[in-house]
Specification:
Shape: globular
Strand order of the largest sheet: 3-2-1-4-5-7-6
Number of domains: 3
Strand content: 15-25%
Distance between the termini: 49 Å
Radius of gyration: 23 Å
Bound molecules: S-adenosylmethionine
Structural class: alpha/beta
Largest sheet: 7 strands, mixed
CATH architecture of the largest domain: 3-Layer(aba) Sandwich
Length: 444
């Protein structure tokens, strides 16, 4: 029986992180990588802040603290996104992908827990879905996904490999009692975890298992309390917790997070982030009615400009003729990835490299972005569509800025080879969970 816990205050959390950091250093974790690995998912900037506090109070050797700082500020060889078959993850999707090893481990674990010939459902896990395409799992596989360009790519890869996956959108009807194991990795916020876990519980057959990745205790002050709340919520869904494996799931550092940390001069090892694996057994039917869908309504439109995924909010609106991209933070890269950062709310233009801007004319920025995307197909801007000469000039100026951003981000990314073997959708609107198709372009 697990007692419910209250969220730690910020002060208690800080004190706990300091204790853990001090113990880790005492035990010989004196490099940045070793320290991050020893701590339970503490964010790199928090680790360095803890180190400063401990050095100030002479609780750790100042020379050790300085050496760890130096290592943290050393930009090693440009890391290349591990799973480059998929479009870049976007911060607005909270898309942290598993390392290939972790994906294999999870698929094997799900297979071990299910009868041969059983059905696996992958829910909100595009990276896992792609990994599953290449493995002899011996189970029927379904992928329940958001309707976005990442899923488009999974569709294409699935077709190219003989369609081992059956793919459905979570904005449509949700499956009922159709899987012996459901794997889900919601964004680490309770308002995502609860509806997705409810959908997973209903999709799971009686006696089946639900596997979920949750934030480890060091991720934030409320992590432990949130896990207990999730386990209590799961109980009402008929799910009994049978396993909790702290820090069992390794993640890649997405490009947007690498940029956010680089903006404050920090370069962590590529696989520092880990999640806790919690496994539930479905022991009875849920006491809650099944959710109709788990899709989220969003008013962002996505346009691919080369590898860069540009999200624009309110693309149907123009509050001014001025379509400038207004800086919201110095250097334009938002230096955090936390949803709690208040600067997020001001942005209505957001790149996959975590650059944020505000514009008073999102409509024109969207048109400029679509024209950039169209150039890759040789279509570009059709002058008759774009009104006055002044509007055309503005459009071209914004398009040039967007092309420059895409070039900078491709450079930052470490020149990941662009995959040009398939076609993908140039832009899509997710405002009503429907999507719009313009010209199909070749993009990576
Ligand atoms: C933390 S990522 C998980 C990715 C996973 N680690 C992987 O490697 O495949 C969270 C994912 O949940 C998806 N997502 C967010 N809200 C969702 C919803 N309501 N239903 C289904 N998927 C959702 C996002 O698109 C994103 O891909």
């Amino acid at each position: 029986m697990i007692a419910s816990r209250r969220s730690l205050s910020q002060a208690s959390f800080t004190a706990r992180v300091d204790d853990l950091t001090q113990a880790a250093i005492r035990d010989g974790a004196t490099s940045f990588a070793a320290l991050l690995h020893r701590l339970p998912g503490v964010y790199p900037t928090e680790v360095l802040a803890s180190l400063d506090r401990l050095a100030d109070s002479a609780s750790v050797d100042a020379a050790v603290a300085m050496s760890i700082h130096r290592r943290a500020a050393t930009n090693g060889v440009a890391a290349v996104e591990g799973r480059s078959l998929l479009p870049l993850p976007h911060p607005l999707d909270y898309e942290w992908r598993f390392t290939p090893d972790a994906a294999r481990l999870l698929l094997n674990r799900a297979a071990d827990l299910t009868p041969s010939g059983g059905d696996l459902l992958l829910f909100g896990t595009p990276g896992l879905a792609v990994e599953a395409l290449t493995l002899p799992i011996g189970r029927r596989l379904a992928f329940l996904a958001e309707d976005n360009s990442v899923t488009d790519r999974v569709f294409a890869l699935n077709q190219a490999t003989g369609s081992p996956l059956s793919i459905a959108f979570c904005s449509g009807g949700l499956p009922r009692e159709s899987a012996d194991a459901v794997f889900l990795d919601p964004p680490w916020y309770l308002d995502f975890v609860r509806p997705m876990l409810a959908a997973a519980a209903h999709a799971c057959r009686s006696g089946g298992v639900v596997l979920i990745s949750l934030p480890p205790d060091g991720a934030r002050p409320s992590a432990e309390a949130d896990r207990q709340a999730t386990i209590a919520f799961a109980r009402r869904l008929g799910l009994a917790a049978i396993e909790h494996s702290p820090l069992a799931i390794a993640y890649e550092t997405p490009f947007f997070e690498r940029n956010a940390l680089a903006a404050v001069g920090i370069y962590p090892p590529q696989h520092w982030r880990r999640g806790d694996l919690v496994v539930f057994r479905k022991t009875r039917a849920s006491t809650r009615p099944p959710p109709a869908s788990s899709g989220r309504l969003r008013d962002w439109t996505e346009v691919a400009i080369g590898r860069m995924r540009l999200f624009i909010r309110g693309g149907g609106e123009a509050h001014s003729d001025d379509a400038s991209l207004i800086s919201l933070v110095e250097g334009d890269i938002l230096p955090t990835v936390s949803r709690r950062d208040p600067r997020r709310r001001q942005a209505n233009v957001w790149t996959s490299g975590n650059r944020i801007f505000r514009t008073d004319n999102p409509q024109l920025v969207l048109e400029a972005a679509i024209s950039c995307a169209g150039e890759a197909m040789g279509s570009g801007v059709q002058p008759s569509l774009w009104g006055s000469i002044r509007e055309r000039e503005t459009l071209e100026r914004v398009a040039a800025k967007l092309r420059a951003l895409a070039a900078i981000e491709e450079q930052e990314e470490g020149k990941t080879p662009i995959i040009t073997t398939e076609r993908s959708i140039a832009w899509r609107s997710s405002s009503t969970n429907s999507w719009s198709r313009s010209t199909a372009i070749v993009s990576g």
